[in-house]
Amino acid sequence: MKVVILAGGKGTRISEESILKPKPMIEIGGMPIIWHIMKLYSFYHFNEFIICCGYKGQMIKEYFIHYYTYRSDSTFSLADQEVTLHENHVEPWKVTLVNTGLNTLTAGRILRVKNYIEDDEFMLTYGDGVSDVNIDSLLNFHHRSGKIATITTTQPAGRFGALKIDPDTNQVKGFKEKARSDSAWVNAGFMVLNRKIFDYLGEGNEMLEAGPLEAVAGGGEMMAYKHEGFWSPMDTMRDKEYLEALWESGQAPWKVW
Fold first, then answer.
1. What's the pLDDT tens digit per position in 184-193?
2. Which stretch, 79-88, 161-170, 222-231, has highest mean pLDDT?
3. What is the mean pLDDT of residues 156-183?
4. For residue 30, is it left (φ>0), alpha (ψ between -120 and 50) or beta?
5. Which residue intervals of the chain are DSSP H helices?
6. Any bridge partners for residue 175, and if so which?
7. Among 210, 196, 5, 193, CA closest to 107
8. Nearest 5°: phi and psi at 250?
C-alpha cells in the first residue's frame, strides 16, 4: 500500500526556517521531519511513498537523489572521478516525487498523484506532524469499518495553563496544565482512504478538509480512529524546539523504530 505525504505548502507560520527550505525538510535531530514520518511507516513495513511536492520541491528531490550517498560510507577517488560506496544505512524505500504545483490546494495535490496509486486504498498524512500512532491498528480499524475514509484523531495537550479559580471570591486556588480530556478531538493526519475518495475531489480546487471530507463525513463514510498517544505538529518555532528537545533527551515518543 502506498503512503502519500503532503509536502507542498509554504509553512508561513514557521517562516524563520521555511524561507530557506520546504517545511518537511526542517530538521529534528539532524534529519528532516519528513524522514521521521517515513521511519514510522517503515517500522510497520510500509515502504512505498508518494511525496506531493510544491514550494521549494526541488530541495526534497535533491535530498532523495543523494540520500544513498548521504547514508553510505564512501570513498572518492578525485583523480579518477570514481566513487565507491561501502556499508550503507539506507531504508528499503521506494519514493515517488511528484510536482503538484506551487499554490495547489490539498485536494488538488492528491488528485495529481492519482495515476501513481494502483491499489484500492492508500494512506495519507501531512509532512509536518509526528506521532507514535500504531499504523497496523489504524489499518485494521479502517478495514473493520468498511468506510471510504478513516482519519486519526487526537486530543492535543493544552498549550496554556488552566487556573483553578474560586467562583465566589475569584481567588486563584491552583495552576495546572490543561488536561487532554478538556480538548476537542482534532485531525492528526495519518489517514486511510479508499480510491472512492477521488470521486469527491472534483477539479481539486479546494482544501481536502473542506468540501471533500465534509461530503464524505456527511454521507456517513468517515470514521475517526482515536489515538491517545503522542502527536505533535510542527507549525511554529516553538513546536520545533519542543520536538528537538524531546529528540535530544533520547525519549522522543514517536521514535518507535
1. 889 999 999 9
2. 222-231
3. 59
4. left
5. 15-18, 33-43, 57-65, 67-70, 106-112, 135-145, 211-218, 237-248
6. 163
7. 210
8. 80, 10
